[in-house]
Amino acid sequence: MEWRSRVGRRWSLVFLLLALVSVFALAACGGDDDDDGDGAAQTEDGERVTLEKKTIGIMGPVDAAEIIKLANDATEQAAEALGWDVIRVDPGGDPAKMASGMTSLVNRGVDAIVLTTMEPATIASGLRAAEQKDIPVIDTHTLTQSAEQFDGEYFLPPDEEFELLLDRMKEDVPEGSQIGVINLPQFLNAKIAGDNIKQAAPDAGWEIVASHDADLANLVPDTQRAIGDMLRANPGIDAIFGCCDFVPAGGVPAIRQSGRDIKLYALHGIPSVMPQVRSGIAIVEVADYQLGGVVAIDVLADHFATGAEIPKEMPAEYDWNMTILDESNAGEGYPYPTQEVLAPFLERWEERYETPTP
Questions:
Q1: Would you call 18 helix, strand, or coil by DSSP?
Q2: Residues 88 and 55 sit within 8 Å (Cβ to Cβ)
Q3: Between 222 and which of 130, 136, 215, 348 could a Cys-Cys bridge form, CB atoms 3.0 to 4.6 Å apart?
Q4: What does the radius of gyration of the chain's CA atoms come to, in whole angstroms?
Q5: How far apart are CA 192 and CA 197, in angstroms?
Q6: For the segment 301-351, what is each residue's pLDDT rounded down to a tens digit?
Q7: What is the pLDDT of residues 143-188, one digit of tens each?
Q8: How far apart are CA 353 and CA 82, in angstroms?
Q9: Any residues with CB less than 8 A from the CB of 292 and at least 6 apart, and which?
Q10: 265, 213, 218: which is closest to 237 by C-alpha?
Q11: DSSP SS3 for 284
């Protein structure tokens, strides 16, 4: 019995050593037997993470505003690139439809909601409903009021945008000049721009002699009419400042009709404004507005695939790009097309995720 006991212990040690060797061999191979994408989040070892089918709700205040549609389109393209479905709501600028649209997304059972420049007070009921159902909500694009129910807030820095355009205005517009201003105070980011120009004008030696709050439901025609009225009532105006993307589309025709040789400076230049910039009348600040929504989809993919926490603020590894366009560089085309904004994300997602089939 003593001999058999020693033999048993000796063979137990051999089997233990063999088991350890097998474990280390599998680890050295990087788990090649698991390459079928079973959902294990081991991307550092080269494994692709399986993404489940999701439905993403997308909403901005009004798709008729090209800058909003540009961002929403990019968000939709990003979601679809991951094999996800999209439900998109366009409230048409109507606050009541914004509120009901948010609630409808929750009731339709979306897995997450990506918003574009939505003020939380307008959609408060829907935000509470989303929170109760644990539906992540990320607000993106231009700055809005903060909300506890927003899991993420990925906004362009409004002061940086304004200072970039202001520096250019200071180069062109001399002290003692009169300026007219187009505002859109319904949105915090645009209101900040209006407040900033009011504060900056006296320091630059300019006098604001006329201002107008644009009609959200009729942006371009209303702006054209307002700037025409400004120029007729104030023949000494030397420049126009605009808060937003729609101002060149309405303002440049008004300036042409007046026969005046003045410049229009606007934040948030968009692809369709390029002809107005090439005309030499409009000078615009432009940024990669689509980035916030695409980053939101990227963050949600990581969240759904690995359980990663959704960061409240834009992850530090992403930087907004912005520049000034005038007739000297407008011929090169719009500097931030959606396909270029999406490209690095698509490349990374291809390497990282096993996406659901359509």
A1: helix
A2: no
A3: 215
A4: 27
A5: 9
A6: 999 999 999 999 999 899 899 999 999 999 888 999 999 999 999 999 999
A7: 888 889 999 999 999 999 999 999 999 999 999 999 999 999 988 8
A8: 8
A9: 71, 116, 140, 141, 154, 155, 156, 314
A10: 265
A11: strand
For 113, other C-beta atoms within 10 Å of its C-beta total 28
Q: Are 151 and 136 in contact (CB under 8 A)?
A: yes
- Tracing tokens 């001999």 back to the chain, one arrives at 3
Helices (H), the chain: 2-28, 66-81, 95-107, 124-132, 158-172, 188-204, 219-233, 247-258, 274-278, 291-306, 338-352
CA atoms within 13 A on the CB side of 190: 24
**Pairing mode of beta strands 322-325, 282-287:** antiparallel
Rounded Cα–Cα distance for residues 41 and 303 (Å): 11
**Tokens found for residue 241:** 């400042």
Contact yes or no for 286/323 (Cβ under 8 A): yes
The C-alpha atoms of residue 131 and residue 110 are separated, in whole angstroms, by: 13
Q: Which residues are paired to 325 by β-bridges?
A: 284
Exposure string of 134-172, with b = 16+ CB inside 10 Å and e = fewer, is ebbbbbbbbbbeebebbbbbbbbebeebbebbbebbeee
